[in-house]
Amino acid sequence: MTVRRRLRSMPHASAISFQGKLINTAFHPAKAAIGWTNPAKPVLQREAKDHKVCCGIIRRAKAMSKRTEDLFQRVYEAKTSQEQAAAYAEWADSYDQAMAESGYVSPPQLAALLAEHCTPGSSAVLDVGCGTGLSGIALKDAGFAEIDGADISDAMLAEAAKKNLYRKLTVVDLMKGIPEPDDTYEGAFSTGTFTLGHVGPEAIPEVIRVLKPGGVFCLTVSDQSWIDQGYEEKLPALGDGLFEVAVNEMHDHVVSHNMQAHFLALKKLG
Ligand SMILES: C[S@@+](CC[C@H](N)C(=O)[O-])C[C@H]1O[C@@H](n2cnc3c(N)ncnc32)[C@H](O)[C@@H]1O
User: Fold this and answer.
1) Is Methyltransferase one of the keywords (predicted)?
2) Which of 21, 50, 127, 209 could form a disulfide bond with 26, CB atoms 3.0-4.6 angstroms apart?
3) How far is the CA of 131 from the centre of ligand 1 (A)?
4) CATH number assigned to the domain with residue range 106-268, chosen from the 4 options 3.90.1150.10, 3.40.50.12780, 3.40.50.150, 3.40.30.120
5) In the prediction, which pLDDT does 256 show?
């Protein structure tokens, strides 16, 4: 099922609009440029037309302020967790506005994917790198009620707390470990965190550890990170005996930056 069809089945998320225009969330042929293939989901001819519309929208979508551009650059180029946390502390109170301006379209699309793999009403989920809670809004809209949030930045978590979406919010450095027992959650979710300057593929097994057997971790990996952080090569070894890649699709991510991301669903084995 394409994300567009998934969103159609979720009335609250049926239209992702940016600057008054409908953003096409269809399967993106940019995957061809990086040699990505998914034999189970061939590109459909009729979506080529949608893609041209999408590219036109991206070219017109350059609405970001200089400050937002600078903060984007700082968080993506951070060399340490401290640099990362400092940049997000500065960004926390204006992050939601900046992401709205940037055409950040991933959270509802990824929440729709998670809802396909976990029954929203009865599943406890962990929002990994939850930030200010934009992802929590998308999870709530998709029907999830028991949502815990984890993030390295207490300033971002303070913003998330104001939204009253989460059962629990915890300061966590994913590269050091999640303070939860094994087999705790039915699902895990992460948008915008497995990316350059943030968290690499090495953190995936720790997220899988806190899932129940059969649980699913849905995450975005930006197209650039996919290449620079070596996901293609590392995922098979990381997943060996631990998880299977149930879904790997390419979709729009941050429209103003013409960024696409891999949308992954990783299913815990056992
Ligand atoms: C681009 S934001 C995404 C936030 C939210 N998921 C969203 O979709 O708006 C990335 C988040 O990852 C968090 N982060 C970066 N490195 C982290 C780490 N090592 N452990 C936990 N969170 C981290 C940042 O603090 C930030 O809130």
Assistant:
1) yes
2) 50
3) 5
4) 3.40.50.150
5) 83
